[in-house]
Amino acid sequence: MPPDLDRDPFAEPRRRDGVLLADFEGEPISMILGHRAVREAAKAWQTYSSDAPFRVPIPAETGVRSVRQLPIEADPPLHKTVRDQLKPIFLKPAAPDYAARIEALVGRLLAPLLDAREIEMVRGFALPLQSIALTHLLGMPETEAEEWIAWGTHVFHDGADGGAKGAVLADYIRRRIDAARRNPGADLFGAMTRMTIEGRPLTDDEMAGIANLAFAGGRDTVINAVAAVIAHFAQDRPALDLLRGEPRRLPAAVEEFIRVTAPLTHIGRVCPHGAQIGPYRVAAGGRVSLCWASANFDDTVFDAPTELRLDRNPNPHLGFGSGPHSCLGAAQARSILRALIRQLAERTAAIDLVAQERSEEHFGPITRTAGFRSLHVRLHAR
């Protein structure tokens, strides 16, 4: 089953007062849990600011990178200025020809795995899929993905010192920026040489901040979602067969997987002037958490939220965030998951779940399973 589908770890504190106070590396952070409250906070950027370099992710990333991620660590108008210029790149997955390319990519990566004895799907399939698909999004050669795959499932926190891994990513980005300065192309790096802020070109640090987010922001989240889809259909073949016979159901199914897996548990905001969050007072400069994973199980919004209903409609989930900072990579993630489900339905007769090791996140007394450290399956060809 997808992580957390059988339970809602945030249910009790959400129903009690809508807030959970949790410790993150010695920093107490109030987690906003309710669907309505999270949406309202996501829009109220003057109260809950993203203008907080290194402190938007939780835990903070002060020790693993040296540049401010843009546009996620900025408020309007800077946020909108950068985001609007990135949209032509990140909305490419909406085009039919792009969707066909992702479809072909998923089929190509699945083909050698069919009828193999056993495959570890996190690093053996989901990681290469996310990395190669990213080359398509950013307009770069597929060969670039070979280096990206070597970074692991998370570019900062994947079994190695985060600072050392961050330095590897930073060096890669600086090399690509230098090359784009000399010879601007049509890829992300070339596009950034033509972007402006208040009429001036981007600095190298601003370009590095955009690229850092592009490589780090949608990596483990997409990998988690891909693994969750495979794990679920290994145990619910009838649902996959239904989608094969009725492909019009695919978009709704993808949205439901995003709701129940909530690949990004939460994100941070800083309160410049302080705030009252339920019973807790946040000091000026203190952080709060917008907890997407809790909001997506709010039973005042979703009927039977712990049930995965592939035809759920309406489905106002917050799996891609909410407000001005809603995820720019949402179209890419949807394209990958649609192609994955379609290919699994059409090309497999059965998926055997052999072994799994889930990842866990801890919030005080609460534990949430979020993705898989490993997922071993056998894929039987149709």
Compact summary:
By secondary structure, this protein is of the alpha+beta class.
What does this structure look like?
By secondary structure, this protein is of the alpha+beta class. The chain has 14 helices and 11 strands. It has one domain: Cytochrome p450. Helices cover 43% and strands 17% of the residues. Helix 4 (96-110) packs antiparallel against helix 5 (121-138), helix 4 (96-110) packs across helix 14 and helix 12 packs across helix 14 (330-347). The longest helix has 21 residues, at 162-182.
Question: What secondary-structure arrangement, pairings included, does this model have?
Answer:
Blueprint: H1 11-16, E1 19-24, E2 27-32, H2 35-43, H3 78-90, H4 96-110, E3 119-120, H5 121-138, H6 145-149, H7 162-182, H8 188-193, E4 196-197, E5 200-201, H9 204-216, H10 219-235, H11 237-245, H12 250-261, E6 267-271, E7 275-277, E8 280-282, E9 286-290, H13 292-295, H14 330-347, E10 348-363, E11 366-381
Parallel strand pairs: 2-9
Antiparallel strand pairs: 1-2, 3-11, 4-5, 6-9, 7-8, 10-11
* SSE order, one letter for each helix or strand: HEEHHHEHHHHEEHHHHEEEEHHEE
Please bin the fraction of helical residues: 40-55%
- Record the strand order, biggest sheet: 1-2-9-6
CATH superfamily: Cytochrome P450
Shape: globular
End-to-end C-alpha gap: 23 Å
Based on the structure given, which CATH architecture is correct? Answer: Orthogonal Bundle
- CATH topology, by name, is Cytochrome p450
Structural class comes to: alpha+beta
What is the number of beta strands? Answer: 11
Q: Which sheet architecture does the biggest sheet show?
A: 4 strands, mixed
